[in-house]
Every structure is written in C-alpha cells, then in structure tokens.
Amino acid sequence: LARDTSTRDASAQASPADDSDKPALSVRHLTKTYAHATSPVLNDVSFDVPKGKVFVVLGPSGSGKSTLLRAIAGLEPIQGGTIALHGDVIDEGKPGRLTGRSKRASALRTRIGMVFQSYDLFPNKTVLGNITLAPTLVLKRKSSDVRDEAMQLLERVHLADRANSWPHELSGGQRQRVAICRALIEHPEVLLLDEITAALDPEMVREVLDVVLELADNGQTMVLVTHEMRFAEAIADHVILLEDGSIVDSTDDPKEFFTHPQSERAKKFLGSFE
Ligand code: ADP
Ligand code: MG
C-alpha cells in the first residue's frame, strides 16, 4: 500500500482561497449517552480535521468509534458539545436529548457522506439507480447530469460495466465501491467510512482500500475507522486512539505511531494486531 502524497499536496495548494481557514470538521467536547445507559459512550471528545486530510480513528471494539461517526453524521443525538463544518455549527448537544435523530440531520446529509460496514444498497435498484436516487429525488438535480456523473464515478472505481447490474449480482467488494460512489455523488465535504472492509473476504479488501487511497490523493477530507493497520499507516495524516469513549492518544505523526508507539495504550492496542 502506497500513497502519492505529492499530487495531493499540490491539489491542496492549488485552491487556498476556496474555503475559510476553519477546519473542514471540528468536534468540540462531544458527549453522548445512550438511553438507559449509566455512563457516556463518548466523553468530552474534541478534534479538528483540516480540509483534504485523512483522520483515522482507532480503538478496541466497543470503544465508541461507530457512535462517534454516527453522531457526526447526524444519526445520533448528542447531549453535549458541538460539531462544526468549516466553522458552521451543524449540531449542538442538548442535555436530556437521548433519543431520536439530530434535528440537523437533513441539513447535514448533503455535507457529510457515510459508508458503513454492511453495504446497504437498495436491493430493488440497479447499481446506477442506487447512485442516482438521492440526487435526483431529494436534491432535484437534472437526471441526465446525475446519470453522467454516476457513470464517471463508476469508471473511477472500475465498475462502469456493472451500471445495470443488481446488487445481488455483485461481490461484496463491488457493492462497497458502489456505496462509495453513492456517497461521493453528493460531493460531501467530509466522508465518514466505518470499517468498510470488515465484512469482506480478504481478496476483496484491497480493491476497496485502493479506491479510498485514491480519494485521499484527490484531496477528499475523510474520517475513517479501520482495523487494517497497514492501510491506516499508509493513509493517515492524523491518528486518534479511542478507549471507553475518550481519546487516549492522538498524533500527527502516524509513521511514528505505528512503528514506535510511545504510550502504553498505543503499544497494547497495536500489539493486539501482531
Ligand atoms: P465501536 O464501533 O468502537 O465498536 P460502538 O460505538 O459501536 O463501538 O459502541 C460503543 C458502546 O456503545 C458499546 O458499549 C455498545 O454496546 C454501546 N452501544 C452501541 N450502540 C448502542 C445503542 N444503539 N444503544 C445502546 N448502546 C449502544
Ligand atoms: Mg464499530
């Protein structure tokens, strides 16, 4: 696994003025407790993701990684803290708001894209239908434009020849690549990826990770959860380690983190993959 950072840095420099200097995503003092739970699942979590960077969230099972991504995506109400995109606060914790979706979920859905572990394509839509549904139906974009863009995206993930296939005709790796296209067609400012290769057979992991590496090279801002440590090392600009809903390690030097972990927690976590 390799990553061409030269192109990516160049593209980031090519457009310095198109956004404010605010981070693409800023999470501040995020606190979440599930209904009926006695302790918070996320406890005072804060971090910034600069535009065009890849932020990797690591942590043992149950540490709160999926909850964090779902909260950012507006799929989980939060009880404290703020979530901002380029400085716009898009969600604010309200104490006592334990259930229901974020009030901002609909406003968020075009600015944040998310792909889950289990490819959740609509079984009764073709590949093309899955990708074009939301932009034409919800965003009311012109259907021929959406179709053209969907075909370009499918070419990027090497699936143009499967445009008219049905989800059940595809392999797991192909379905995940379609799910990525479905997120990308909404031009998300931040793309959230939650263990998108965890349910795949080993021989399909690579084809999906290669697509994610290419997105990184093209400057897509991403927050991703993965158990593929070599991939994390190759793609990360920043790494955090979650434990019991708190950030226990955080670094801008992923190479150092993976090759010479400093904290006992990082050593223990990385040791569990050897
Ligand atoms: P991870 O993705 O790191 O494995 P999760 O965010 O899925 O962790 O889960 C963190 C904790 O929250 C776990 O203890 C889990 O059992 C609990 N949890 C997850 N989803 C729910 C839910 N919908 N209701 C109550 N508790 C939940
Ligand atoms: Mg999870």
Description of the structure:
It is a single chain. With 274 residues, the protein is of the alpha/beta class. The chain is 35% helix and 21% strand. It has ten helices and ten strands. The strands form two sheets. It has a six-stranded mixed beta sheet, sandwiched between helices. It has a four-stranded antiparallel beta sheet with strand order 2-1-4-5, covered by helices on one side. Mean pLDDT is 89; it is low at 9-17. Bound molecules: adenosine-5'-diphosphate and magnesium ion. Residues 65-66, 195 line the site of magnesium ion (MG). InterPro entries: AAA+_ATPase (IPR003593), ABC_transporter-like_ATP-bd (IPR003439), ABC_transporter-like_CS (IPR017871), MetN_ABC_transporter-like (IPR050086), P-loop_NTPase (IPR027417). Keywords: ATP-binding, Nucleotide-binding, Transport. Residues 25-270 form the ABC transporter domain. This is Glutamine ABC transporter ATP-binding protein.
Separation, N- and C-terminal Cα atoms:
18 Å
Given as residue ranges, the uncertain stretches (5+ residues, pLDDT < 50) are 9-17
Order of adjacent strands in the largest pleated sheet = 6-7-8-3-9-10
Rounded radius of gyration (Å): 18 Å
InterPro entries: AAA+_ATPase, ABC_transporter-like_ATP-bd, ABC_transporter-like_CS, MetN_ABC_transporter-like, P-loop_NTPase
Keywords: ATP-binding, Nucleotide-binding, Transport
Domain ABC transporter: 25-270
Family: Belongs to the ABC transporter superfamily.
